[in-house]
Design brief:
2 domains, 4-stranded antiparallel β-sheet, 11 helices, alpha/beta, Rossmann fold
């Protein structure tokens, strides 16, 4: 679904992404791991149109999407979440979801004057959709809570819910487990797996929790110093000497004791 070819992103003399090439298969939950500073989030930002590449190409379903702005990619079904959740804190959880779909009739002054009935019908449909999403994510009891009052894990679930309010095809999740307790992280993991299996979502996940990656992701791609270092199953990654060296600066002699950790 996504193909990245020889992608570079430079900030002055710093090469955050330095010739990365990779593919994300349709229907997969692909993990993206690597040491801090490996270029993972910068890669996400370039793919998702938040940063222009210095060079290289990005393709979605065979179409060149290099440098397209986020709103254009949004309408093509490419969405991303952030390590720090972005919510409208003074609005309710349900209202946050209802804000997501674009092209709503109430967005224009003309429709607000003469299309009130249509606006009310759309709002009813959006509310029903939002309630369905919240029930799917098991946070329907929070629908009338102000989003700013949610815990970190609940905000991550809300961000995942936003992707369900539109026709998402591929979702890039940036450290979905950051600041999330184990119980809520399991809930988030369950939702990702269900969206993948039941609704055909494709995911690419940056995450430092290797148990979470091992549970959800196949394949796993490893980045280091702006490049793709290795790709394979989690077991293949854990036994890869280059990966262990990149993470720990040690060799095979210490891998069994130290393990691989992001």
């Amino acid at each position: 679904m996504i193909r990245v070819e020889n992608l570079h992103k430079h900030f002055g003399g710093f090469h955050a992404v330095d010739g990365a090439s990779l593919e994300i298969a349709q229907g997969s939950i692909t993990g993206l791991i690597g040491p801090n500073g490996a270029g993972k989030t910068t890669l996400f930002n370039v793919i998702a149109g938040r940063l222009p590449p210095t060079s290289g190409r990005v393709f979605m379903a065979g179409e060149d999407i290099t440098g397209l702005p986020p709103h254009d990619l949004f309408h093509r079904g490419l969405l991303r979440t952030f390590q720090i959740a972005h919510e409208f804190s003074s609005m309710t959880v349900r209202e946050n979801l209802m804000m997501v779909p674009g092209g709503q009739s109430g967005e224009t002054i003309w429709n607000a004057w003469i299309g009130r009935q249509r606006i009310l019908e759309e709002e009813r449909e959006l509310q029903a959709k939002a309630d369905e999403v919240l029930e799917f994510l098991t946070i329907d009891h929070l629908k009338d809570e102000k989003a700013g009052n949610l815990s970190g894990g609940q905000k991550k679930l809300l961000e995942l819910g936003r992707t369900m309010m539109v026709d998402a095809k591929i979702v890039f999740l940036d450290e979905v487990g950051a600041g999330v307790n184990r119980t809520l992280l399991n809930t988030i993991g369950d939702a990702i797996v269900r969206l993948n299996r039941e609704r055909g979502y494709t995911f690419c996940v940056i995450e430092h929790d290797m148990d979470f990656i091992a549970r959800l992701c196949d394949p796993v791609i490893v980045m280091a110093e702006g490049r793709v270092l290795a790709e394979g199953t989690i077991d293949q990654i854990k036994s890869n000497e280059q990966v262990i060296e990149a993470y720990l600066g040690t060799g095979l002699k210490n891998k069994d004791a130290a393990g691989v950790s992001a």
